From TrEMBL:
Stored InterPro entries: ESRP, Nucleotide-bd_a/b_plait_sf, RBD_domain_sf, RNaseH-like_sf, RNaseH_sf, RRM_dom
Encoding gene, per UniProt annotation: Esrp2
Family under the similarity heading: Belongs to the ESRP family.
Record GO cellular component, one term: nucleus
Protein name listed in UniProt: Epithelial splicing regulatory protein 2
SUPFAM superfamilies for the chain: Ribonuclease H-like, RNA-binding domain, RBD
GO molecular-function term, one example from the UniProt record: RNA binding
Organism expressing this protein natively: Tachuris rubrigastra
Amino acid sequence: SLVVLFGATAGAYGAKLGSDERELILLVWQVVDLHSKKVGTLHKSLVKADNLELSDQCLEVSALTPEGLSKAEPLDRVLQQFSQLVSTDLKVLGRSSYTLCSDGQLLIRQVLHPETSKKNFPLSDCFYSFYDLRKEFHTCYPSSAAVKDQTIKTMAEYLGLGTDEAEEDFGVWQVKTMVAIIFSMLSEGCNHVFTEPETVKYKYETGPCLLWLFFFFFLCSSKSETVDSETVIRARGLPWQSSDQDIARFFKGLNIAKGGVALCLNSQGRRNGEALVRFVNSEQRDLALERHKHHMGSRYIEVYKATGEEFLKIAGGTSNEVAQFLSKENQVIIRMRGLPFTATQEDVLGFLGPECPVTGGKEGLLFVKYPDGRPTGDAFVLFSCEEYAQNALKKHKEILGKRYIELFRSTAAEVQQVVLNRYMSTPLIPTLPAPIIPVIPPPYTIATGSIRDCVRLRGLPYTAGIDDILEFMGDATGDIKPHGVHMVLNQQGRPSGDAFIQMKSADKAFMVAQKCHKKMMKDRYVEVFQCSGEEMNFVLMGGTLNRSGLSPPPCKLPCLSPPAYAAFQTAAVIPAEAALYQPQALLPTTRTPQASAAAPPTVTYYPAQAAQLYMNYTAYYPSPPVSPTTVGYIAAPAGAVAAAATATHTPILPQPGALVRMQGLPYNTGMKEILSFFQGYQYAPDDYNGLIQLSDQARSVLQAPKEWVCL
């Protein structure tokens, strides 16, 4: 038997059902015996929502009123009545089992499962398996419209069913028409058989994501599995303490692949409010995208498309030690942080105690270590059930030795990321995107000073590139200084929604701010403010600029200079990170040794061979450091490339590999101590020109121990 089910919410209707998080207000159903072709009683139940305000579309389509809904039963009561009435109808028809049949998947996956999950009451088993009438109809009638374009009305029209929607109450007509469509599919000409229902997973399956990466040289064995980019999304704005189960609950009703939740970590191994989620197919991914800005508690979560490559970088790497640790499935993982460096397995087991036994004893512990074998103070622990894990979490911030220990829920993907990050001593995902194209560093410096000859664009679409900005500027494009467009990037090297433009004069900047303020770019309005070069520089360094003036950066920059900064002569290759950091923008002005007049121009290259480009982008680290889109580039004119190639200017560094960075210095370190530290090595000549102490402004950006850059 089938139970034909139709429902409506207080908000959007049709293809957008459930996309606005509005509650269910109507359920209509009828039992259909597929063998005898008999039907049970048609039932219609109103549902009392917590918020009785109805959208205009709902009022127009359903003709329901808040007054009528206020007298209805809440959803949990209606679902109890549903089960009782269906059982009664089945007995009358001489049947005992049934499967739901709905018009598409939205009612089951996007309305019922998310709403009952938020209201903390379970759905009966019948809601975890159902037939999608649109798919069944297309299977029976292949020449009909595509599944995504089907509606009850189009299916009825295809079959020539003469039904008048205006004659019946809202919901009643839909169910009656669906029943008529099913009987047509069961007729002798079609003899359709309902055999493969849609399923909803009861719970998210944890466990290691068995995707091994070739480029991790230290792996003892390697396998490869591609991840379809059409199945992956990026969720951002997550509470920092959210676990993979919390994320799975947010996507309740959709089928996430096993081990398909990967929490993103920053370079310090802490969660940054993002997660990559892999679904079983593209259809589930598309439904997940409709939950953009749905709420997890009091926070709304942004949902964007992501790629399989991004998912692999987060969840794909592992080692034999990690694989063995994660080989025990259906385990609850807890992360311990702040352990004494001398802590042993026995110490950890004693700290947890007999009330929360670790799976496999010592085998259920995984200590995270640096490449040289030193402990990091982190460890992961396996528990066989939720009860033991809860007991362990109660020990959060209890003392082990002389230190308090933090305990958090964790995931298999987080285990892989943390262990690999520590093992490689650099983040699994680099701070900035991998290089693919050659770049010529521009022979200019970003303007400074108090003259307000710059403008700031705020609220740009994440997909906006320099071409879009130039089009947005209109006639004022001719008043932009050469190389005067600066896109502000976030920690992933992606647009943050801000940009700065250097104009030829303060008057031009004022006119642009007046003309373009709150002008539309694509589907967003963009704010345009006049500012000075000094203010622009400060924001590009990580600070903030608002009506109250300049504010310190919102969070710490992991580094201002790349770990392996080097510049070479023409046609040489330098690390990708160095090309993305222009020293004029990141370091204070210093005296440099006079360059030889015959010195050739310093040209920075990326490995790949492609057209030469200008890259007017500066790293910026907002809080949280997240963004869903990718970086665009603009090609340099051929004439500009030729001019840059023949120009003579001072090399960035006197010779390859001459720049080193010192971290972890005592706060009271001075020039004398540093020179003593490098005793026996030749540093930059005369007057210690090469010793550059970071400026006070850069110090506020770093919020870290004193650092020096030495040439």
